[in-house]
Amino acid sequence: MKKQGFLIFLFICFWASIGLTWADEINQNIETVIVDDFDSATTLKGANRQWFWYVRGSKFVIEDSVEWKLIKGYPDTLYSKKQAEGKDLHILGIKASFDRKGYNYLEVIPVTKDKNGKIVARPIELPGMVKSIDLWVWGANFNYYIEVFLLDSRGMNHRLFLGDLNFEGWKNLTVNIPSYIPQSRRYIPKREALYLTKIVIWTRPNERVNDFYVYFDNLKVNTDTFISKFDGDELADLEELQKLWNEGKAIQP
Q1: Rounded to two decimals, what is the model's pTM?
Q2: In this structure, which of 53, 90, 96, 207 has its CB flanked by the most CB atoms within 10 Å?
């Protein structure tokens, strides 16, 4: 009887622990966070801009043809004329040509400048546990497609198909983040950051590749920003932890 009672006790503890785990996982706070609206010098809820966009082409690009700049405009679906009135709204415009057909590409890369003024890659850390990435894209019915490239905190690169460009005008392209891309672990701190390293526009071999234009607007993520609270959770915050260690007193022998 004692053995049977002990087994029942273990069974109850096991299911209680599963229930606690599930409870932690189903607590979510899904938010839509704009990564870049291409309108101003601020991004990610008002933070100072820490990157700029740089565009480069693959082997057969005609170098003098590659241009990118902020152009006044917006998708009508995002703003009515009344909503847009008085706002300084912009989109990212990209134009280029290649001198032969094939799987050519343009890389749209977040960059910054180092202390010597050299342009270097500056991957964008995405907030929370990212569920999806979406981008408003203007297409001219070219048979091209777009991919987004992500870097996880373990150093692995991932490429995700965002969508085809064989449409006319503005369209919202979305990709869900697959579960095999790690964004958490069982150790504290639990969240593992995910970084956007570039957006790539690909041409297909049967499509013309001269004088094409593409426009981007409103790059954003749907993300879970819920953080479990527990006794001592301030010691799991990396910024707070660094501050505490800097202010800590060394123990003298």
Answers
A1: 0.79
A2: 96
